[in-house]
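User: Good morning. I'm curious how pyridoxal-5'-phosphate would be positioned relative to this chain. Could you predict the structure with it bound?
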Amino acid sequence: MQKSSGPALGSYWMPFTANRDFKQHPRMLVSAEGMYYKDIDGKPVLDATAGLWCVPLGHRQPKIVKAVQEAVSTLDYGPSFQVGHPAVFAFAERLIDYSGNRFGQVFFTNSGSESVDTALKIAIGYHRACGDATRTRLIGRERGYHGVGFGGISVGGISANRRGFGSLLTGVDHLPHTYNLEHNAYTRGEPTWGSHLAEDLERIVALHDASTIAAVIVEPVAGSTGVLVPPKGYLKRLREICTAHGILLIFDEVITGFGRLTTPFAADYFDVEPDMITSAKGLTNGVVPMGAVFVKSHVHDAFMHGPDGIELFHGYTYSGHPLACAAGLASLDIFAECDVLAHARGIAGYWEDAVHALKGLPHVKDLRNLGLIAAIELDSIPGRIGARAFDAFRRAFADGLLIRVTGDTIALSPPLVLEKTHIDEMFEKIAAILRALD
Ligand SMILES: Cc1ncc(COP(=O)(O)O)c(C=O)c1O
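Assistant: Good morning! Here's the predicted structure, ligand included:
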C-alpha cells in the first residue's frame, strides 16, 4: 500500500476498476518520463503496458509536449462542422501517407469506441449509398473487444462487457474465437493451427444471405481479451470470403496500429487489405484523446454522389481537435525521425526470447507473443477466476512494474522505444512474482 496521503477518493467513479478495493489500496501515479511512471511516494514504476497500450513513444516526449503547448496557445479549440483548421487537414494527409497511401480518407473521433461505432455506421451507410439498403447485419467475433459503445459491445464478444446492458444492437452475429490451448500452447508468433476457423463466415453468410450483411469487424490480434494471435492464413481467408460476398472488412487496430507489431498497422504485418481501419491510442501517443477511421476511397466516394449537402450525418464536437492534431503530427515526426519501427523490429526477437523463457515457472500454462505484445496465461485458482493474475498485478505495482491483467492472463505491451535493459528488468520482476504467487 502507498504511504503518502493524497486527495479524498470517494467522488471519482473509476472505469473498469474494482472501486472499493482500489480505494482501500490506492495506486497513484503522479508523473512520467520515458519508460517510467513515478508513484505518489516517488517510486519509479516501469511501464510494461504503454499506459493502456497507448504510449508507443514513451512518456513526455519533448517534441509532443512542445507541439501541444504551442497549439493550445494558438488555437485552443475549433469546431469541425462546416469549419476547419489547417492542422486537421495536415494531420489527415500525413496519416494517409503513414498508411502507405493504402487508404484515401480519415474520419476523426475521440476514442477507440467512437472509431468503432463510426466505422460500423459508415459500413451500413456505404451499402445504402450503393443501393444495397438491406445490408445492415454486422459480424464480430467471440472474445473480441471493440470498446464500450452500444455498437462496440454488440459486435464485441466479451461476456462481462455485454451481459449487463440489455438487448444491444439487433442483427449481429459472431465468428468463433481462435484461441486453442490444446493445439497452440507456447507458440512463438502466429500459430499454425486454426486458419479453418475463418470458414465459419461462410456458415453465417449461408444462414443470413450475403445481401443482408454489411461488414465483418475483427481485431487482427485480439488484445483486451488476453492477446490472441491469429492463426497463419486466417485473416487472409476472412478477406477472401468478404470480397467474394461484397462484405466490408474492418480491422479494429486501436491497439495494433502505430507500430505494435513493428509495422505501421497490423494490416501491413499480415499483408491483408481491410476496407477500413479503426484506430486511437498510439495515434497521439496517448497525450490527447483522439481516434481515427481510415477509409478506402471506394467507400468514401460512394457517399459523394448524392444530393448536395451533408453526406454523412455523423461527427463529434471534438473531431479533429487542434491539440490532438498537434500531438499526432509530432508523434508521426518522431516515428519517422527516430525510425521507431526499425527499433521495434530490432528488439522483437529479444522480447520473444524473454517471454518464452518463463516456460516452466509456477502457474504458467501458456505464453504468446507477436511484435511487442506478450501474454502470460496462468492457471486459475478453482472458483476464483482472475484472482491469481490480479494478485500478480498488485505485487508488480508494489515492486515498481505496471502490467495489465485480464482474467488470469497477464498482457504486456511496452512502449516501442524500450531497450534490452527494460526487458531484463520486466522479466526478472515477473519471474520473481510468479515464484511468489499462491
Ligand atoms: C481493439 C480495441 N477497440 C476499441 C477499443 C476502445 O478504445 P477506447 O477505450 O479508446 O474507447 C479498445 C481499447 O482498448 C481496443 O483495444
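The two ends are 19 Å apart (CA to CA). The mean pLDDT is 97.
Let me know if you'd like a different ligand tried.
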